[in-house]
Write a structure and sequence with these properties.
single chain; Archaeosine Trna-guanine Transglycosylase, Chain: A, domain 4; 8-stranded mixed β-sheet; 13 strands; 35% helix; globular
Length: 384
């Protein structure tokens, strides 16, 4: 992620952005006892409505549904089991969107609820439908309010999904900027509560953060994200060419005006990756691994080729066709991740064989790659 622009130019781009994705965390919207803070929602809506009136399209990715459901359900703290998390999100989501609807209506703006999962932005049909729906909402002047669809989650609600979701939405809509709001005003080189901690004003390359201990939790502890996921979200967005500012909700107006608040992650200047590539690299975990021989590693990494059965020497884990898997060299280093075309149990019989041999001996349906190059992304360690 290299960028030749100056800090002032980066901030000017934010001030002049025509389409901005804003993500706000649970701790910025709720009271300590788990109820929605109406004043905070109203203040955020005021700031975003100002920018909307100036001609900027605004998309809001808002956490807070589960946190908002804790109080009304009489729960003492954020639940740990999936069923209760889903129930709290179901109760809280309705309350959350109702408050947003009233807050934006006071400015003559229509709030539109959009519930997504990260997978919706990866599958081709859902990806296309989501983009079309969001663009239409912007065309008619509405403010889309997006949240992770926690109520129907099929896996444990993961740490920081809305941060990553915001970055993927910014890429999906070709946003001009991403603004990540939380209860911390910036990224620091140490715990900001400690004397001498220094605000990191600008990040141009991931290596700028080498040696920086990025904290994993906010002050309130009611959300699912933390500084780690916000930095990862910024990396996703900047790789897609979207400059990102990380700051507190209290600084939202100043950040949108291009003032020197928070931490700015400068946009990369290379070719934008596809949403599928971003999803694979940053929003998935391998559900198993496939070990490659040196020739296959070279073909995948240097020649950007598909992974064929002939180059596989070992399979680890239990996965099914369509799952993300890690592609490793024989030393165990992960070099890529991709969507696998076979179940784990099928691959041992295919290893070391050419696709032509497999088609002849097992049938034409076996004349396919283990991972097709269009469903494969190199990980940063392999690209350096």
């Amino acid at each position: 992620m290299q960028n030749a622009s100056s800090p002032a130019q980066d901030r000017a781009e934010l001030a002049g952005a025509g389409r901005i994705v804003v993500k706000v965390g649970s701790s910025s919207l709720t009271t300590p006892d788990g109820h929605i803070d109406r004043e905070r929602i109203r203040d955020l809506a005021d700031v975003l409505a100002e920018r909307r009136a100036a001609g900027t399209e605004i998309v809001l990715v808002s956490s807070g549904a589960m946190a908002a459901g804790i109080g009304p359900m009489g729960l003492p703290a954020r639940p740990r089991d999936l069923a209760t998390q889903q129930a709290a999100a179901s109760v809280g989501q309705g309350l959350l969107i109702a408050h947003y609807t009233r807050a934006f209506a006071g400015h003559g703006l229509t709030a539109a609820q959009v519930l997504l999962t990260v997978e919706d932005l990866m599958r081709r049909v859902q990806h296309r439908n989501a983009r079309r729906a969001l663009r239409r909402l912007l065309d008619i002047g509405a403010v889309p309010i997006i949240n992770e669809n926690d109520t129907v989650a099929t896996h444990e609600i993961r740490f920081g999904d809305n941060d990553r979701l915001a970055a993927l939405v910014a890429h999906l809509l070709r946003a001009d900027a991403l603004l990540l709001l939380s209860d911390v005003d910036a990224l620091y080189d140490d715990d900001p509560a400690r004397p001498g901690a220094r605000r990191i004003a600008r990040v141009v390359d991931p290596r700028d953060l080498d040696g920086v201990a990025v904290g994993s939790a906010g002050r309130r502890g009611v959300g699912t994200g933390g500084m780690v996921t916000k930095v990862e979200s910024a990396r996703i967005a900047t790789e897609a060419g979207v400059p990102t500012v990380l700051t507190s909700a209290a600084n939202a107006r100043a950040a949108l005006a291009g003032e020197q608040v928070g931490t700015l992650f400068a946009a990369g200047t290379g070719r934008r990756p596809s949403t599928r590539q971003l999803w694979l690299a940053h929003a998935t975990a391998g559900r198993g691994s496939v070990v490659l021989d040196p020739g296959a590693v070279r073909a995948v990494v240097r020649e950007h080729a598909s992974l064929l059965p002939a180059g596989v020497v070992k399979v680890e884990g239990d996965f099914t066709a369509g799952d993300p898997v890690d592609l490793c060299d024989e030393d165990g280093r992960v070099v890529a991740r991709g969507l696998v075309n076979y179940d784990a149990a099928e691959i041992p019989e295919l290893m070391g064989r050419s696709t032509r041999w497999l088609a002849r001996e097992l049938g034409p349906e076996y004349e396919r790659e283990i991972v097709h190059r269009d469903d494969l992304v190199l990980l940063s360690a392999a690209e350096r």
